[in-house]
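Entry 14. Ran structure prediction on the chain below.
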Amino acid sequence: MLAMKFLGHRSVQILCGVVLYLVTASSLPLEIHQGLYAISLLMKDLLLWMLPITVGLFIANAIASFEKRAPFFILVLFFFEALSNGLSVWYAYGCGHLATISLPSLASCHFVDTFNPLWRFSLVKPAWWSADKGTFVGVILGLMAVFRWPFLRTVLASGKQRAEWVLTRVFARLIPLFILGFVSRMYNTNLLHQLSTQYVGFFLWLLAVLIVYLGVLFVVGSGFVRRTLFQSIKNLLPAAGVAFSSGCSLSTMPWTIEGTAKNLQNPDLAKAVIPATTNIQQIGDCIVNAFLCYLIYVHFYGHSPSLAIWTAFSTIFVLARFATAAVIGGAIFIMLPIYEHYLSFTPEMIAIILAFNVLLDPLITCSNVVANGALCRIFERTWGYALRRVTRGSASQLF
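Output, structure tokens:
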């Protein structure tokens, strides 16, 4: 019974599947690897098609639950996102100062991806069918349910329940298979091999920088309580595993919401904050790219960017995060003109940062997801404090 219960845990199933695959990978024909990757891509495409509706329903239902406080909630969330992204960029600037002493040149990085799926259905979404549109529609519907048409609350609640059923009863049970295909891609493109042989020092520095920052977020969110801290980290590990293997924050969203909800006093808050912030509050992306920008700048120009240059760059960089929500998987290309204009990046410098973004994509996505979950608990505290200041009510009236 204990063995069956142990094997029933999703994390154990994922670990066993990955280990079994890696042990047998060298003897498997290429078609098996490509087939696993094709299945994962199909699941990812289906999730991305479904997510605009899911995001809209989650956000609308959550905003409706806040009733007259909904506009204030949106305002507080916007400033919280801008502040969290800004702090991460300046944190990377400070870490860059320390790292330049020991890190080797980054100019030799290269990456070529020649691994393709065995087949691929044409499920290309139109440009207007994206998570940011779902967020916008969700905000509008939620406000309408609060101020104009109260009957919408029943409709929104019913739609949310149906979306949750699909995510928890269908996609959640397919996590091991979902991850396996992306592990296959990482194995066949030698991503882990490159990091472990050519850029060990850089990878260790970057890993330490991310772990310290994420650790601080969890410590603050847990209120410096050790038991709460470890439980919070444990609850987000499944989402971290899915994010690392899939490389997509959006397709990881169901598991991010599930893990984050367990860490909150008001679990429904996760269904409002996570969908609204998944493609905006990208702490891993901000830290990694700002860290890379600093190191590349120092390597090519021989000195650190001045505080004036970094201030201008960080301001536009943070504001641009709100514009990249609609560009799933292509946010880096919106940021390139910012690097060129504010940090004087040359084509060679841009090529290096693009290569590293491809190489480090699993780590960046995993950090984004974990940080988003950790920050949701901090936002819950911030939202409670802001509401108390405005309403001068008791903590029991917050939600």
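The CA atoms of residues 67 and 146 lie 5 Å apart. Will compare against last week's run tomorrow.
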